[in-house]
Structure to design on (188 residues):
């Protein structure tokens, strides 16, 4: 996650504006390029933050579902133990053996339903964790994209400092394009 202040991009744009007042058309172009890169970097940084939040949301949901799953499995075990106890009691014979056998069947049916619920919850946990991984993967790609954009801004600024050398502007454009391409790739 990017640790910069939300206004840093505007500071880059302000520096570019000062350079634009120097009057040369190329420096004006460089200044506009820096401003555009700053806006793109801010936008990609926002997407990065959104993906981080989505990762945490999915992980929290998975954790809550895992707790419910554990509860269901504990409930299943309790029902299975009762079923087994009634099975044993029914096998002993006696006047209540039919009643015990009926209770064993009831607990068997109930434990089967609980097992189905627990398995469904396990599937939901897996889905949530898969979604969290997808968002985390996007976050990592967007972090790299923002880094490329920040480096592009810094290198493009060298064109202003060197009073119009073109190579820093070209390199900044290339890095900016790479950052935009990575940001787009994050959502493929």
């Amino acid at each position: 996650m990017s640790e910069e202040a939300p206004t840093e991009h505007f500071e880059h744009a302000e520096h570019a504006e000062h350079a634009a007042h120097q009057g040369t058309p190329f420096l004006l172009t460089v200044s506009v390029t820096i401003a555009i890169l700053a806006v793109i970097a801010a936008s990609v940084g926002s997407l990065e933050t959104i993906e981080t939040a989505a990762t945490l949301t999915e992980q929290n949901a998975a954790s809550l579902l895992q707790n419910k799953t554990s509860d269901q499995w504990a409930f299943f075990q309790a029902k299975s133990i009762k079923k087994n106890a009634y099975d044993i009691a029914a096998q002993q014979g006696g006047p209540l053996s039919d009643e015990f056998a009926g209770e064993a069947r009831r607990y068997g049916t109930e434990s089967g339903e609980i097992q189905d619920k627990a398995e469904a919850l396990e599937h939901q946990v897996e889905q949530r964790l898969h979604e969290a991984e997808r968002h985390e993967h996007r976050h990592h790609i967007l972090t790299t994209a923002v880094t490329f954009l920040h480096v592009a801004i810094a290198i493009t600024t060298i064109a202003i400092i060197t009073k119009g050398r073109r190579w820093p502007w070209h390199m900044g454009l290339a890095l900016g394009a790479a950052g935009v391409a990575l940001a787009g790739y994050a959502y493929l």
Summary: The chain has one domain: 8-185. The first helix runs from residue 8 to 20. Residues 8-185 form one domain. Residues 82 and 107 are 7 Å apart (CA to CA).
